[in-house]
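pasting for ref. prot 1 ->
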Amino acid sequence: MKQFKRFLKYTRPYRLKIILALLCAFVTSLAAIISTFFSGLAIDTMIGSGAVNFASLARILTALAVIYIVSSLFQWFISRYANQVSYLIVRDIRRDIFASLNRQPLSFFDGHPHGDIVSRFTNDADSLSDALAVSITGFFTGIVTIIASLIFMLFLNIPLTVTILVVTPICIVVAARLTVFSQKTFRKQQQEVGNLSAYISENVGNQRVVKAFSREKQAEEDFNKISDDLYNAASRAMFASALVNPTTRFVNNIGYIAVGLTGGILAITSGTSVGILSSFLIYSTQFAKPFNELSGITNQLQTAFASLGRIFALIDAEPETPDIPNAGELSDCKGEVVFDHVSFSYTPDRPLIKDFNFKAQPGQMTAIVGPTGCGKTTLVNLLMRFYDVTSGAILIDGKNIQNLTRDSLRRSFGMVLQDAWIFDGTIRDNIAYGNPKASDEQIMQAARAAYAHSFIKRMPNGYDTYINADTLSQGQRQLITIARAMLADPAMLILDEATSSIDSLTEIRTQKAFLTLMDGKTSFVIAHRLSTIVTADCILVMKDGNIIEQGSHSKLLEKKGFYYDLYNSQFH
């Protein structure tokens, strides 16, 4: 119920459209009820063979034609307004989901399957939209139909109306019990839809790996298992929902038979006309129809409620810790970076970095090397405040980064990562991502510095060529991201295996460009190929979250320690 009340808040901006839809529904429902009354009158104009009041019949048929035309027109308006409102509300919900995702810390995305998140955007939002379009007028139409038909039935014949009212509560109780029973099954179904979407997203995005390890058969078996789980959950949900409609119709049919028998007796004993009895039988069907329709769309409504829970769970996910009140701005950054007794762990029982101390001077190039899992990338995550330190502090120009706004902190860094990220758009837009106001000449200068200009000019439309992640090779994507960082011209740089996907010749050229870019800037370079960081001012050798060695390349080689072994292992 709380979720439903919360959902109603999304309907407030569209109250006028909803009211118009409800008014149209009112007119349509009332037209159906009135047309039934006129049908009974039309039948009563035909008393017997040769005893037909054609003048009255013509007037009644003309009135029925007008009623049906008006009803059809307003039915079109209902569909139009209901669909508009459902699309607008779901659009607003999707906006809130996306806004919530933008507020999430990196740990949220590390801990949630991306396919499941996408499923909440698509499958869950679509099921909500479908149910909303059906139910936005369905309930109101049903209420109007029930009340109006009840009034006309009481007007026509009270004993017959009582017969209907005796059966109706049984129908309501049965439908309510079955609906509660099916709710859990639909929640499970939506969870399985999310699991399937996550698995498909994971496999489609990593097909090269799947094929490289000949895992197609295993992937197909895993997919079939998840698909079967979804089938079983959907089957149980549909079975539970399918019970509602036939059960309520069975009860209604019993009521229909009771009305027919009672009406026949009244026609014989009290002279109730055939027209009245005919109208009443139709009214009894119209009176029961909203209950039957409600049971018929139960599966959609249950799916929508399950989807609503998953959507609100995403919207309500704990956002990234907000900046402290009156947080400072990092401006005119000189680039002095200090790690002061920093400790960090992703989980409390598994400490990763312990009492880490280091100071990078302004303009210094610091290389970070070490075996996989030693904490190299974690240092970058802490520096960018993707994660906050467990204890200790990181200072930039003497300011604790937790006292600075994240925006100003992250704008002070340029990042080139091993996984080159390219979005659907032109090459120009991709390079200018970090500096949208850059001129065409500045964009080209950055591309030349990154040695990307030559291959860009060979593209069909040069810098205006529309690209996506599959258009370019890994190396070309890497050069685009390097050009992007160069164009942003930040105060500090983070390079995480930035040249890992580039051929040796281009790497040599790009290294020269990086040296130019890093001149006068504090830089942190994570590298596995140690030949790329021999010119670093300081090399941090990490192992198990600790700095075990530090110094220049030559000094570390003289020590003949861990770095010495690591360096020589790459050349022997």
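and prot 2 ->
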Amino acid sequence: MRLIISIFVLINTSKSLLSFPAIVPQQDKTVKELIALAEESEKSGNANQAVYYYDKVANIYWKLGGYNNAQVYFEKALENVVKVGNKNGEKVLYTNLGFLFVEQSDYPKAIKSFEKALGIASAMGKKLEVGQILLNISNAQIEQGEYQMAIAKLNQAQSIAQEVGDLKLLRNIYYNFNRAYDKLSNPEKAQEYFNFYAALTKKIQAEEIRQKEQLAKAMVDSAGRVVQQFAQEKDQTVKKLAETSKELQARKQTLQDVEKQTREQQMQIDLLNAEMQLRDVEIRHQKLLQQVYIGIIVISLVIAAVISYLYIGKRKANRMLAKKNAEISQQRDAISRQAEELRELNALKDKLFSIIAHDLRSPLFSLITMLNIAKEGHFSPENFKQVLDELSVNVNHTTALLENLLTWAKNQMQGTKVNPQNFDLHELVNSKILLLNDAATSKEVKLINSVPEGAIIYADKDMTDIVVHNLISNAIKFCNAGDKINVWSFTGGGTVTVCVEDTGIGMPPEVMEKLFGSQITSTPGTRNEKGTGLGLILCKEFIEMNGGEIWADSQLGKGSKFFFSLPAIKV
């Protein structure tokens, strides 16, 4: 029975072709961190480090079956490895791309990648790697039915394998010869190369067994020598310890005898001296005790007075210092807050003037220019209608920009007073859908009001109107023909939560992170519609002023959901 084995040299054996585990949050976090490190390395000019991180990201995606992402990051690694002129790294990356395409059965791309790796390996004079890459190319050619071309590559690889003496490579070459001739219906040649393959396999296995036996024998011999050496060292150590113990015992006995004689003589001398000095000591002791007692009493009184005075003064100074520190800390915090507010207001002012200079001046100049040209009679009726349609879009954009700018500026400079009242959310959404229906119809987008009738909100109606208008306008901006926008709500916990949900293009995570920030940013719509960048800032400010919250959820290519919550009906 013919043995069927798929041979790919240098394939990472940890990649399973049967199934791939889904990416887990920790892996997703690791991939994002690696991509961030790679991009930072690129910006700082460290192309070698960028290659390392991009290669790790590509291998993670490859292992998890994300072939498209793996290809993207292998190619990013290639861009950086070419910058530093690392030919060996370029060869490895082209080889990995070849294996990646093989796993996707895209054999033409696999062969193209292997051939680029082959050219580099040949230029570097690495014959063994040239033979291995030729084997990989032949395998892909066999898979896509180019049997004669595969045999030509195998003949080249066979010459190299015989020249360098690599039996394993030669065995794999014989196996591919067997596959190619079998596909060409040449059983004699197929059997011949299969016999070569089987003979080499047995030889390689026998050599591996012999090497393992030699290694095991060498390890046993080495262990025996070590045990014998330990035994000899143990005997010598025991003998030395016995001799040392005897010597120490003799010295100990001598020292004990000398100490005994010295102690007895010293005791006699001390006894005589003690008897002679005992009387004098007793007299002096009595006088000294009297003087010490008097001195202790005087010193104790002085120390107590000094400590009491210092403690009172220190406590008073600490209270004053704590009070001053608290005042300084409050002043510093207030100054820091004011400075931060001034910086933010200055940045907003600059951004505001930039928007006014660009987004207002351009449409107004276009209007003036068109009116002058029309006045001079340079437009035909058809051209005039076309220009008028385009100008209408610009004027609508300019009107929306002015409304948001004026509302935002009033809120920033004068402060907007909140006037909460009970109102019907369903009716408000209906009015906004009627107002924006023409814009949605022009893009073939359907607007749906799923807010239940009788859903009452207690908030400022004008502010809520602006929020709903902005959110529906944004949804239309990022929808394509055939998409839907559904406004729905639910009540619970004393609040009404409203959602503006669309099936549009969605947002990537990096855009989501910037939503509702203090910086003014704008993204063009699906038909390159312009935005003011103020809409979501206004929405956030108005919702929070009414005691609510606003947030969003989106997936790229699957649409977006914008939520906000406001207090329910107040009885």
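The longest strand covers residues 484-492.
The CA atoms of residues 381 and 387 lie 10 Å apart.
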